[in-house]
Amino acid sequence: MMDKVIMAGFGGQGIMFLGKVLAYAGMTTDLELCWIPSYGPEMRGGTANCSVILSDEEIHSPVVDLADAVVVMNQPAYERFKSRVKPGGVLIVNSSLATTDNKREDITIIEIPASEIANNLGNASIANMVCLGALLPNMRLADWESVEKTMEKLTIKRPEFLQGNLDAIKKGIEFAN
Amino acid sequence: MKKVFERTKGLSDAHFTFCPGCTHGTIMRLIAEVMDELNIIEDTIGVSPVGCAGFCQDFFTCDFVGAAHGRAQAVGTGIKRSLPDKMVFTYQGDGDIAAIGTQHAIHCAARGEKITSIMVNNAIYGMTGGQMAPTTLEGMKTTTSPYGRDPISVGMPMDFPKIIANIPGAVYVASVSVDSPKNINKAKKAIKKAFQVQQAGLGFALVSVLSTCPTNWGLSPVDSLKWLRENMLPIYELGELKETEEVKSL
Amino acid sequence: MERVLMKGNEIIGEAAIQAGCKLFFGYPITPSTEVIEYLSANLPPKGGTVLQAEDEIGAINMCYGAACTGNRVLTASSSPGISLKQEGISFAAAVELPMVLVNVNRCGPGLGGLGPAQSDYFQSTKGGGHGDYRLIVLAPSKAQELYDYTMEAFDLADQYRNPVMVHTDGFLGQTMEPVVLKERPQAPDVNKDWIVTGAKNREKRILASYSLTNEVGEANNIAWENKYKEIQDKEQRWESFHTEDAEYLLVSYGTTGRICKSTVLNARKKGIKLGLIRPITLWPFPEKGIKPLLNQIKGILTVELNTGQMIEDVKLAAECKVPVKLYRRQGGMLPTEDEILENLEKIFQPEESGEVRN
Predict the structure, then answer these.
(1) In this predicted model, what pLDDT tens digit does every residue of C26-79 receive, in sequence order?
(2) Which residue from A35, A37, A60 is facing C262, i.e. has the nearest CB?
(3) How far, rounded to the nearest angstrom, does the alpha carbon of residue B123 sit from its chain's CA centroid?
(4) Domain limit, last residue, from C166, C200, C234
(5) Is residue C82 located within the same domain as residue C221?
(6) Cα atoms in the Cβ-side hemisphere of radius 13 Å centred on B95
(7) What does pTM read for this prediction?
(8) Is the minimum CB–CB distance between C263 and chain A shorter than 8 Å?
(9) Strands B87-93 and B116-121
């Protein structure tokens, strides 16, 4: 069993972190995994994307051509990655910053106003976690339990950030369900 | 019979292979005497360059590492960082240290690398047969400046020790000459101090030594010394160009 | 044993520490910079030294100096930086200095791009610098191998008194994967009776590479040649993947080597008897892995991230007995497993005669 996920958005939207949460969640359940950043010369700005593979068997090819799930957090990311969802897969769109057109019939599209939800929670920078929440019900190898455990670890030095992140993830899960 | 002079322990019994009148041999003897006097021969690793100066590895009795052209101070840095308790010195010609190896020389000084560098400046590339060096004097004829060094085309000669003296990490910089017994004595004192600076761990020390190249200058050994005095001394100021307070109190 | 999630470049740094590396000299360059960053944070607390040099040339020559003293030393860079180091690597090979070099390949020529590539294969395996020398070149394909091969590189360097290169790429360097940080088994005991540490109670030593006479020069070259032959004889390494009954063979290393494993599995699902030789040593090239298969296979496809470099070594190994073709991506692009299979099918039109394995 294997989950391949692509995440994309603006630099600064926490795309890499979103991927890392999934990757570390895979570590808590002893999965095989790859976290693959798109790396470039810029430290900030521009578009950012990364992909994560979670698997219960050895991962040979780490190249994610078509993904089981794709998260796009802005319009350019939507344009670039909408075709990279496997037939039958899921496309999660941050509808606060991206509008969809010519919707593919062969995939499930979840349009979630992630930035708006994050703003309502009082922290615009956790829209990525809202998207993560929307992603979780659509994953086979990551779930609330492993992600919660991971968030505890990742915020160990900044415990004040834990609850806000968990709340955002929960909102996302509720929306997707 | 009483022995009044003998070869210093710092030099091996290999015969110098330098051209008649070349002052490399004198400079090497001074370094060897200094190592002997400081009792550091067994604790010293020398780094030899490329060029006539490169032969030095055969003449000293301490361990030696041969570096690529210009890289002696980077190699010396590697040795010193690996063995901080050992003494490390580089022996380099003007082309090696002030042309192809400039970046290493400047940054070795900038880091305050605790090594000693001896630069031998004879204003020409000796081993390759007399080409222009960064230190070649204005109007001086070499095989690559056959009409004389033209400052408009290739700039003025570089007074390299003065450049190094501007760098904070260089704590002792001296410019000396071996054209006369008096200057030879001064040169030895400077070389000794440059090693003592390293022993005390104060920073980078450079001694530039004005030297001759009778073969490529096309002069007799005696005339070469005269030429050095008349032409190089006015351009390359002698003396202790830089000496920090710590060095002075050594 | 601890299983941790780390970036490939950081794994190299940790492996070096575990292998007893005492010194690192380097210069930042994407996509290899995490090696120097990781070691800057983690080597000095363990008593080691990290120095950011003025440039790549300085860094390799610092490695050269440190290696002369017998301590384990590492440098890491990426393609253009490795080009700058070539003079120093040639000198290190000539003085027979053990040191480990990491090339996190990006694409070229020139400044190129930051994407993964294998376009430095020739440079790594055929000398790279001037003169006639060889590096031992190891090619990891995943996180655990970055760790294991880097540690082993130090042992091989000491054993053969030769620089060893870990040839990886930006993809492996930037990707995070789990790795088990195994402790290094006791390194083989190597008598370093050649190092310079000061001539105390022994004759002075000179570590240099200048041969004053042609006769001495030839004798040196023959001695090095004999060493290289011994390495070729003893150290060829490769992984065979589904080769027992293979009718067609992929040869690919590093990132594409692991992609090709998925290609093999997909081909087997279709009944195509495909196998893979994944070279672990790029030099010595593992011809011993290929030659025994020549009577059973009908074609070889090399999969590379360059214009076709390793294919020359594969052709030599294949002795003109089977056709050897190339499928390549360049400029930082990676092929997918299906893309490789499609091209294999197009080139060789294999029969789908084998048992369908899922």
Answers:
(1) 999 999 999 999 999 999 999 999 999 999 999 999 999 999 999 999 999 999
(2) A60
(3) 12
(4) C234
(5) yes
(6) 21
(7) 0.96
(8) yes
(9) parallel
C353 within a domain of the structure (yes/no): no
ipTM above 0.95, yes or no: yes
Which has the closest alpha carbon to B122: B242, B32, B235, B201?
Answer: B235
Amino acid at A39: Y
- Report the number of distinct structural domains present in chain C: 2
**Could you tell me if residue C357 is inside a domain?**
no
Task: Please tell me whether residues C218 and C282 are part of one structural domain.
Answer: no
Tokens of A73: 């957090």
C144 and C216 together in one domain:
yes
pLDDT in tens, C277-286: 999 999 999 9
Tell me, yes or no, whether C181 lies in a domain. Answer: yes
Burial class (CB in 10 A: 0-12, 13-18, 19+), C347: middle
CATH number of domain containing A142 = 3.40.920.10
Q: Do chains A and B touch (3 or more CB pairs under 8 A)?
A: no
Surface of A (38-77) touching C: CB under 8 A: 39-41, 59-63, 65
| CB spacing of C258 vs A60 below 8 angstroms | yes
Tokens of C103: 């090339």
**Residue of B45, B66, B74 with shortest CB distance to C209:** B66
Residues C293 and C337 in one domain: yes
**Domains annotated on chain B, with CATH:** 24-248 (3.40.50.970)
**Domain coverage including residue A15:** 2-176
* Same-domain check for residues C290 and C226: no
Instruction: Place A39 in a pLDDT band, splitting at 50, 70 and 90.
Output: low
* Segment 93-122 of chain C within 8 Å of chain B by CB: 95
How sure is the predictor about A42, in pLDDT bands with cuts at 50, 70 and 90? low
What's the token pair of residue A43?
């430290």
Which of C136, C140, C30, C20 has its CA nearest to residue C79? C30
Residue numbers of the domain that contains C30: 3-234
Domain boundary among C194, C215, C234: C234
Per-residue pLDDT tens over the stretch C247-299:
999 999 999 999 999 999 999 999 999 999 999 999 999 999 999 999 999 99
How far, in Å, CA of B101 to CA of B45, rounded? 20
Residue C351: pLDDT band (50, 70, 90) is confident
* Shared domain check, C252 and C228: no
CATH code at position C276: 3.40.50.920
- pLDDT tens-digit profile of A129-144? 999 999 999 999 999 9
HEC readout, B191-219:
HHHHHHHHHCCCCEEEEEEECCCHHHHCC
- Cα B80 from Cα B63, distance rounded (Å): 13
CB–CB of C31 and A39 under 8 A? yes
Count of domains observed in chain A: 1
Query: Phi and psi of A116, rounded to 5°?
Result: -65, -45
C86/B contact by beta carbon, under 8 A? no
